[in-house]
Design brief:
Length: 288
């Protein structure tokens, strides 16, 4: 078996970015989302990214058209039935993800590999919703997927060696490096990164320093490319909160207890860049 056709479930920022990366590297790609407006938004973002790359001289016009031709957009889950690998990038909710896995298990070929882009949920929980646990694993892309050349690959105790081999080849063809992680909540990146974001929120809530100074301290003082609060706004505070709750529930350790300020921001729809307000405010893009 060789991975030639890729299915992505979820047309949000991550799903669209993964689809773009796959198509850019020559894979036939199906991007599925049940909501037409989400699917259209994904198509607009993908076209905008490609146009920007053409303007920057990264791609030629012919290459842009070739990438666009590789992507099929569909609101029908059955559109991914004949894909060699299908990765879900839906909301960071274990019940929603398990239902997606159960549905994919029912409609896809027995040979199809099922992957999750979860940021924190143990993969075994998702694999338990299928009859093919040997062909289930985690392939966690960083945000934004089309720009960051790293993925975490998470095998469960039942993931087969052949599945891992095929997926390592696939990820390498996507131009990404692989970090292998055991099936532990948060894996490597978010188990380290998200508690730092949470602590930065606690520091802000305590009035130790302003949001600007907290981020400037980390950028200048530890050579991070982006401060933790700006990073949280980029990730989405709702996603940060979901990851923290998963870590807290799985480890039963209050070091992962979400900062009340993050909870409050999410309750008031201050989710970061995607809503225009989070720890910082962002200009609203006006459609021309």
């Amino acid at each position: 078996m060789e991975i030639r056709k890729v299915g992505i479930i979820g047309g949000g920022i991550m799903g669209a970015g993964i689809a773009l990366r796959a198509a850019q590297h020559g894979f036939l790609t199906v991007l599925m989302d049940a909501l037409p407006e989400v699917l259209k938004g994904a198509e607009i973002r993908i076209h905008a990214s490609l146009s920007k790359w053409v303007e920057q001289g990264i791609l030629g016009t012919a290459q842009k058209l070739a990438v666009m031709e590789c992507i099929e957009y569909s609101p029908d889950l059955h559109a991914v039935a004949n894909c060699d690998i299908v990765s879900e990038a839906v909301s960071e909710n274990v019940d929603i993800k398990k239902q997606v896995f159960a549905d994919l298990d029912r409609i896809c070929s027995s040979e199809t590999i099922l992957a999750s882009n979860t940021s924190s949920i143990p993969i075994q929980k998702l694999a338990s919703a299928t009859q093919r646990p040997d062909r289930v694993l985690g392939i966690h892309f960083m945000n934004p997927p089309q720009r960051i050349d790293l993925v975490e690959m998470i095998a469960t105790g039942t993931t087969s060696k052949e599945t891992l081999r095929l997926c390592e080849q696939f990820v390498t063809r996507l131009g990404c490096e692989v970090v292998k992680s055991k099936d532990s909540p948060g894996f490597v990146v978010n188990r380290i990164l998200i508690p730092m974001v949470n602590e930065a929120a606690y520091v802000l809530q305590a009035g130790v320093a302003s949001a600007e100074d907290i981020d400037r301290a980390l950028v200048k003082g530890s050579h991070q490319p982006m401060g933790p609060l700006a990073l949280a706004d980029l990730i989405g505070l709702d996603v940060v909160l979901s990851i923290l709750r998963t870590l807290h529930e799985e480890f039963k350790n209050n070091r992962y207890l979400p900062c009340p300020l993050i909870v409050q921001h999410v309750m008031h729809n201050r989710l970061g860049r995607k809503t225009g307000k989070g720890f910082f405010e962002y200009p609203v893009k006006v459609s021309s």
